[in-house]
Amino acid sequence: MSERAVPFHCPYCGDEDLRPHAAEHGTWECHSCRRAFSLRLIGHLAPPPSAPGGTS
Ligand SMILES: [Zn+2]
């Protein structure tokens, strides 16, 4: 079984009837609200700021 990132719910209507939209990676279509969308990694979060409470 191949495991990959799969959205469990449509981000627009919340339905679970999601299917791959095309061969393009990360594209999905919701058969409930008939929307096609893509999941895209925008980037990584910056590391949290250093803990406050230094010498001041
Ligand atoms: Zn939907």
Order of helices and strands: EEE
Shape: elongated
- In terms of structural class, how would the helical and strand content be classed? mainly beta
Radius of gyration over all CA atoms, rounded: 18 Å
Regions with pLDDT < 50 over 5+ consecutive residues? Answer: none
Q: What is the tally of beta strands?
A: 3
Number of helices: 0
Helix content: under 10%
The neighbouring-strand order within the major sheet is 1-2-3
Terminus-to-terminus distance? 56 Å
How many strands, what sense, and barrel or not for the largest sheet? 3 strands, antiparallel
Report on this structure.
The model has no long low-confidence stretch (mean pLDDT 86). The chain has strands spanning 18-20, 27-30, 35-38. A three-stranded antiparallel β-sheet has the order 1-2-3, with no helix packed on it. It is mainly beta and 56 residues long. It has a domain at 7-40. Strand 2 (27-30) and strand 3 (35-38) form a beta hairpin. Residues 10, 12-13, 15, 30, 32-33, 35 line the site of zinc ion.
What is the structure about, briefly put?
With 56 residues, this protein is an all-beta fold.
